[in-house]
Amino acid sequence: MTHPDDADDRERRLLELLGQLFGDRADEVLAQMRAQGLDPSALMGDGPLPDSAAMRQVLAQVQRLLSTPGDGPVNTSVAHDLARQVAIAEGDPSLTAGQAKAATDALRVAELWLDAATTLPPSGGQAHAWSRSEWVEATLPAWSRLVAPVAASMADALATVLGDQLPEDVDLGVQLPGLAGGEELGLEQLGLGGLEPGQVMRRLGAAAFGMQVGQAAGTLSREVFGATDVGLPLLPDPGTALVPTNVAAFAEGLDAPADEVRLFLAVREAAHARLFTHVPWVRAHLTGLVEQYARGITIDLDTLEEQVRDVDPADPDQLRRALSGGGVFGVQPTPEQKATLLRLETALALVEGWVDEVSAQAALPHLPHAVPLREMLRRRRAAGGPAEQTFASLVGLELRPRRSRDAAALFAHVYTAGGAEGRDAVWDHPDLLPGPLDLDDPAGYLARRAAQAMADSELDQALADLLGDD
C-alpha cells in the first residue's frame, strides 16, 4: 500500500513537471487529468510509467508547441487551441434556439431599416448567431494573416537574441525531471531532428506568437458584439453575425430594453457588412495599410533581450508573457510608417463615421433609445476597447478611429447636400476618399472636390487638344 506522504511527493513532482510544460496552467492540466480518470501520483513512480499513453500525450503537447506547418511566423494550431480555451474561460454556453432566432431576426430587421437609409444593398450573406467559440473559429484566420508580417520580424529577432544567449554546445532537449528516470528528451524524440538551432528558435517564436494571437482572439471573443466591431473585415465571405451572450451582457444595466440594444447593434453590423461587400476596394485598402505598417515595424533588440533574458528558451509560454509586456517595437516610426498610419487612421474613421451616420438614420425612426445608444457606442470606440489593446500588443499599432465624429459630420454634410446617393458616392473610388484636411473642414469637402474635378477636366481637355494638334 502506498504511503500518503509518498503519493503527495509524487504529485508535487508531477506539478513541477507540468509547470515546466504548461506554466501557470499546471493546476488546470492536473485537474483535467483527474477528470479523465488518470491517477496523477501513479505517473511519477520510480520505475517505468504505468501508462505509456499519458507519456505520449505529454510528448505530443511539447512537440506541438515546437512545430508549425511550413515554418510560418504564427503557430496557428497553438493560436486556435488557446483562443478556444480563453473564449470559454468565463463561460460560453451553447445558444438556445430562442437566442439564435432573436439574433438572426434582428439582423434581418436591420437590413429592412437600412434599405431606407443607404443605396448600398444588403451584403447577401448568411445571418449568423455565434457563441464565443464560434466567433473565434470564424475570425482567427484573419487575425493570423494580419499579424503575420510583424510575427516574422519578431521570430527573426528572437532567433538572434535567444541564439546569442545559448552556449554553442547547447542541447535543445526538454528535461522531464522525475519522469522516465529524469532523462532529457532531445530534438529527435520530439520529432524535430535535423533542425538547426536557429530554426528551433523560430519555432519557439512561432509558438509564442501563436499564444499571443490566441490570447488576444479569445479575449476579444468575450467583448465583441459581431464580426465588425474592430472596423476591419474579418470574414472571408459576405455575411453578418451577432454574439448574443456578449450583446446580453452589454445590455445589462442600460436604460434601453435588451431588444432595442440588440437591434441597434444589428443595424451597425449590417451597415458594416454592406460597405465591406459592395465597396470591395475598402477591404483591400484597410488590410493593405495594416500589413504595410506592420512590415515597417522594427524590433528593439536591446529591449527584447532585456525582456527575455531570464526566459527558458524551451518554454513558449514564458516567451509569450515576455513579449506581451510591450516595448519591443521600435519607438520611433519611420516617415513612411507615419504616412501609412495617418492614412489608416483616416480610413478607419471614415468607415466608422459612415456606419455611425447611416445606422443612426436607419434606427432613429424605430428605436426610442437610438440617440443614447449611438453616443454610448461612440464613446466606447473613442476610448479604445479590446481591439485597440489587442493590436497594440500584437503589432504595436492601435486601431482607434480617433476622428470618427469628424467623419460622421462630413457624411452628414454630404447627405444634406446630395442625399443618400451623394453620401454613398464618396465610396465610388479610392481617389474620392476624404483626407485629413476634409476631416478638419467637413463643410468645405464638397467645394474642394468640385474644384479638383474641374481641374482634372481642364487637364483632360488640354491633353486632348494637345494630342489633337499632333
Automatic annotation (TrEMBL):
Name of the molecule in the record: Putative hydrolase
Stored InterPro entries: Zinicin_2 (IPR018766), Zinicin_2_N (IPR042271)
Residues annotated as transmembrane: none
One Pfam family recorded for the sequence: Zincin_2
Entry annotated with the keyword Hydrolase: yes
A molecular function (GO) term: hydrolase activity
Keywords annotated in UniProt: Hydrolase
